[in-house]
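[Q] Does anyone have a clean structure-token version of this?
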Amino acid sequence: MKISTKIFSIPPFISTRWEYVVSLRVAEDLLIVTLKDGTACSIPHLPKETIDQIFAYHAESIETANHQKDDIGQLMEGMRSGFKELVNMLSKLGANALSSLGKALEHDPNNANLPQLPPDMVKKVKMLLNIIPREDIMAMPEGEPGCHCMYCQINRILREAILTQETNTPDILAEEETEAVEEKDLEFSEWIVEPIQDKLYKVTNKLDTQEEYRVFLGDPIGCTCGRPHCEHVLAVLKS
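[A] Here you go.
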């Protein structure tokens, strides 16, 4: 018999990890263990001290699982907020983006069980194809199979996007024409500039369309970000 924080083993009745145990209950002289697959195991004639120990370890396993879920949730929230900063940094670095990506992200086996990136973040990852040369991406170390750490997910998304583009037929590419990048856009610009009225412009972040500003080129020149000589004013002047 072996009962610990990870293992619940009472031969010949049961031997499993606590993560696969759903519930415990006592009925008359039986300890009834219900597993995740729905099966139930009945163990007879256990001393009260052993039953108390089993219940204590089971409660501890539940608390540990809840903490891990909370930690993953916090990590995902931090990942969401930090990812925008990472993409903005890479967009500004242009040709140097690849080496910066390698320094900012690397395979992390400790985070191999991160949740999949949501669709909105996947879309932003694919926009890095406008910044990083495809041959450089393909030269990066491949992500580890089955690993969901940040590096492996981003690496996998970029590689799959490149391979999909290379294997698409002209007909398929025509269907995606609405998302095609014009030749003049291949030189990546972080901002989209649109005139609103005389001397007033809307400036939108290409990588996060929720981020937008108003720039006035009259007297005095100003931007709704509140900073003098900001990059938004410069983007309008360059346009």
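[Q] Thanks! Anything notable?
[A] The first helix runs from residue 48 to 93.
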